[in-house]
Structures are given as C-alpha cells and as structure tokens.
Amino acid sequence: MNMSTRLKELLNSGTTLVMPDTYDPISARIIEQCGFMAVQCSGGSYSISRGYRSEADILFQDNLEQTRRIV
After folding, report:
1. Is-contact 23 44, C-beta < 8 A?
2. For 3, left (φ over 0), alpha (ψ -120 to 50), or beta?
3. What's the whole-number average pLDDT of the chain?
4. 62, 69 contact by CB (below 8 A)
C-alpha cells in the first residue's frame, strides 16, 4: 500500500488523527518513534527554524527539498 492511500485510510477512519508538526528530519523521526501514525510538514515551522521572517520568504524549491528530507 502506498503512503497516500494509507493516509487517506487514517483520515477516513472515524477516529481523531493526531499529527504533530515537523520541521526537519530529526523532529520527524522523534515523532515517529513516539508512535504517532502521521506527521504534518509546516512551511511556517520550517521558516521559523531557518530564521526566515515569513513562510512566504521560502523559495519553492527549498520547501520541496526540506519536505523530501522529512519524508
């Protein structure tokens, strides 16, 4: 089963899906090791962690690359 199908199943399960926010690969791994079923990637959290003033200041390619690293 691919990841998008699994996420869709989790979202449609009828139970609350708690998805902590991750901004880098290390935080994603910690969230995973704590037993959460999913994480969310936030451009806002990533921008704060990298010292940007605003999420809008992140280049699209940089955002994609950071998301790739988290996944």
Report:
1. no
2. alpha
3. 89
4. no
